[in-house]
Write a structure and sequence with these properties.
The structure holds 2 protein chains of 2 kinds. Helix content of chain A is 44%, strand content 12%. By secondary structure, chain A is of the alpha+beta class. Chain A has a 5-stranded mixed β-sheet with strand order 2-3-1-4-5, with helices on one face. In chain A, helix 1 packs parallel to helix 3. The radius of gyration of chain A is 18 Å and the shape is elongated. Chain B has 22 helices and 16 strands. Chain B is globular and about 80 Å long. The chains are: A alpha+beta, B alpha/beta.
Chain lengths: 161, 515
Amino acid sequence: MNQTPLPADQAALLQQLIGQHRHVAGGLLPLLHAVQDALGHVPPAAVPDIAQGMGVSRAEVHGVLGYYHFFRAEPPGRHVVQVCLAEACKACGADELMTRAQAILGCPSHGTRADGAVTLEPVYCLGLCASSPAIQVNDRVLARMTPTRLQRLATELGVCA
Amino acid sequence: MSPVTVYVPCDSAALAAGADEVAAALQAQCARRGLAVEVVRNSSRGLFWLEPLVEVGTPQGRVAYGPVTEDDVPSLLDAGALSGAAHPLRQGITEQIPYLALQERLTFRRMGLTQPLSLADYAAHDGWGGLKKAAAMEGAALIHEVTHSGLRGRGGAAFPAGIKWKTVAHAQAAQKYVVCNADEGDSGTFSDRMTLEGDPYMLLEGMAIAALAVGATQGYVYIRSEYPHAVATMTEAVVRATAAGYLGDDVCGSGKAFHVQVRKAAGAYVCGEETAMLESIEGKRGIVRAKPPLPALEGLFGQPTVINNVITFASVPVILARGAQFYRDFGMGRSHGTLPFQLAGNIRHGGLVEKAFGLTLRELLYGFGGGTRSGRPIKAVQVGGPLGAYVPESQWDVPLDYEAYAAMGAVVGHGGIVVHDDTADMAALARYAFEFCTLESCGKCTPCRIGSTRGVEVVDRIVGSAQNPPQREQQVQLLRDLCHTMVHGSLCAMGGMTPYPVLSALDHYPQDFGL
């Protein structure tokens, strides 16, 4: 498989993170979290080193990465907007909000806009079910969201379509 | 003059409503006006329609104002809110707000009162009382207390906690584990999140008691990645509790060790199933294990493991501190104690209502909840999460009790309650239940992996065959057969309970399916 190798600084960081996790029981998930925290995603080129460092096969690492929704193989957009589509949010208009969000941001659900400014994705429960519908924008959670407020927010962030 | 204490919650639901902005505005405005205030970031009372709920310490008690936006801060200060004066947002003495005053808060008694990470606050509000007692008790006596309290697993399955602990205690192994399932993925639930963010030491105290009871030395708290504030708070709480000697090499002077690690999940709903969670903590794909062996005998890394959810562990300290009988006397039938019900979705007064088992859904929906937020009639109420049944109005007077709900084909579960008004399309919600199952199935067993996809298709065909009644009837029969297979043939609750919302929607709201 041809892959762009990791830049030297990322490769060094990766080795450092592997060193911190290789002796942790069940350390693969914490390591993958650490890599994603540092790089914003888990590059496919990091998989062989992770596998070797953790003493598992590349297939196992790949399997874990593919299984969990949280891990990204590609860098996300500069802003990540997540709209909760679970029941408590549906009961307060989440489906309509998601439809409007796609128009406001000019970005399909599950997609990153061509200019890399924003990623839009559904999420299934942020635990704000008494204040629905809820969304998360980067690290910030926002409750009782409306299309009007989302439009204002998108303007503030400079990510309107 | 000593500064006035002003409380602005740091719970996610308060932050999501602008609590940080309110706290900043308060600080800035008071500084400008030369008013001495100390802004305390407390946990949330759980009256979420009033968040951000700002409380002011007065000689009469804390006075509540809410919901406060940053733009309200000048008018609050103009009105004299720092001395508890009248204002359109004033809700009165917090403890006297009926929503709060009518509750029976045992587990959530500190919620909203304390700063989550303050060891001094926790100790000053009955904290560690249960663990200190436990540290001086024999394991068997401890387990007897928990068994006698009648505490059952609060995560949904309602298995008696004491029996599970006893199984682990009797297992012979060099290493045992205590694992807290904090993968609260169900829509309509937030009691775990509130505990993790708002009263983390209560959870750790409960886990430490379990560890002493069964002889475990290592614990894990598995928290979903969608709860970053909970992960941060729990991680710091473990550090502080360990430094203070409540965890670590010598738990509370017992001479026994118990270490805890926080593990962040990665967005797989099925990891809320206990065996899938164990796989995930072991660093693997979160695939469900077949049972037996029971995790109590062969759990994490193949060793005997106590697995309980957040509220189960969090209920233990009060049981030890006040005695099993005290706890047991709450509730009805075989449902002893209290449950933190969570009113969510289209509800006017959404929030946390801790009550003894035995009240009715109608009391929760109207007495506490005040009806829908939209002002329209309530149509359907899903109790117990995405895998719980939709409960129609004819059943709203049945007492909330594990057995009474089971008898009508529903589940109390973790007490999450999602309200839908009369605009809800129950066929669409049934379809969504299957769709969610296709997204989140771990794929190990066929009824769940394939059945969920077929379920989406069958619901579509039922809805689409309005002009062809014979075909529609045939598809309805097919749907019932499919649900039967999923209920009886799935390895875990993911596939096994997805039919609950589907069939309850079909049975109670056939018109939405064109029937």
